[in-house]
Every structure is written in structure tokens, then in C-alpha cells.
Specification:
There is one protein chain. The protein is an alpha+beta fold and about 90 residues long. The protein has one domain. Strands 2-1-3 form a 3-stranded antiparallel sheet, with helices on one face. The two termini are about 30 Å apart.
Length: about 90
């Protein structure tokens, strides 16, 4: 790879989130149960199962983790039907 290409990738870096659905195991520990491409999907998952985890931010939470570079690019190229639902971090 040429130096110019490396510089281009660094300059063109974008951010996109993956959303971790986490459940509370004890007072200070959250465990990631599953990962979603959209915040909406993750919240729907938790809201449909109050019997399992309780209320949001008490028994479960959604945690966004920004991805950079190639990972962000791959996430942004997922199926067209999700295109409008992906949350971009600016």
C-alpha cells in the first residue's frame, strides 16, 4: 500500500456505532447479552422482555460503541432496508 493511500484512509475515516444490549449482573457489572446494528432494534429487544430484565437502565441498558475506519464502512453498507435506521456518531 502506498503512503498516499494510507493517508487517504486516515483522512476519510468515519464513525458508526454498534449497539450493545447489556444486562446488569450486580451493582457494578454489566454483561453484554447481544449486539445490534441499530439503537432502535436494541431498545425494542429490551422493551419486549421486561419479564426477563426489568426496566431500562435498571436491569438492562443500551451502550453504543463507535467503530472507525473499515469496520464503520462495512457497517454502513448493510442491507438497504436498514439504511435509514443506522445511527451515525458525529
Amino acid at each position: 500500500m502506498k503512503i498516499e493511500e494510507k493517508e487517504f484512509w486516515a483522512d476519510a475515516m468515519t464513525k458508526n456505532c454498534v449497539w450493545l444490549f447489556q444486562i446488569k449482573e450486580d451493582e457494578e457489572h454489566w454483561r453484554t447479552e447481544t449486539v445490534f446494528l441499530t439503537n432502535e432494534e436494541a431498545n425494542d429487544w429490551g422493551n419486549r422482555r421486561p419479564y426477563a430484565w426489568g426496566k431500562k437502565n435498571v436491569g438492562w441498558r443500551i451502550f453504543g460503541v463507535p467503530c472507525y475506519g473499515l469496520m464503520a464502512e462495512l457497517l454502513s453498507k448493510h442491507i438497504k432496508e436498514f439504511e435509514s435506521k443506522v445511527d451515525y456518531v458525529v
